[in-house]
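Hi Y.,

Following your request, here is the sequence exactly as I used it, all 233 residues.
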Amino acid sequence: MPENSSSVTKGWTPARVTVFGVAAIVLILSSAAIVLFANLPDANAFNLRVEQIFIQNDALTSTSDVKLLEILAQSGTAFSETLASYRFIIFVLMVFATAVLIAALIALVSLVTMTRRIAQIEKTGIQVSSLVVNRDQRIVQINDMEFKLTEAALETLSVLAEARLDDDILTGLEIEAMISGKPEVDCDEATGATRVKRLRDHLGNQMISELLIKNIARKGYVLAVEPDAIKVF
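Below is the corresponding structure, written out as tokens. Let me know if you'd prefer a different format.
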């Protein structure tokens, strides 16, 4: 039973949900429009009613009666034009409502899909197949993305990359000592943490950079990259 429900869940892809959702919206609003337009009065109903009154009353032949007939006929024409404009307005509103609901559905599906992808990334981490650090050009290439870094940010990344090659985890204190060349007793943990924060800022997207440079509680910082994928030159 769980396997069947799992296969059904997998069958409902975002594309299928969007298609069925759009079809349902169009069907429901089309049905509502048909019912609405079917129950609207006929545009010529007023004129037909006035004509019927004068056909059934042959005595209405005086000048005043004819004048009354003209006034009623003009009123009927105005009613027809007004009703026609109402029909057009209702049609435009129905089209607008359909477009808004379809846009809202697509936005909702996209949001759910993006949330699932973000949750998957947070769960599995970033798959980095290549991380190349070029100190001369101050460039780091992560997969097919290239980043231009400042000298300080590049030094921080280089230290973390070399530590990852040695399978080490560095604290902020150790990062600052290795970059500045000072003894650890003369360095500050907060300064090293600031260097890591600036490196993340230079890499751009906060979530991606934090997943790339992981902070392990009570241990320090480490690159979430396989050592074989790292090149520093």
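The longest strand covers residues 131-134.

Thanks again,
Q.
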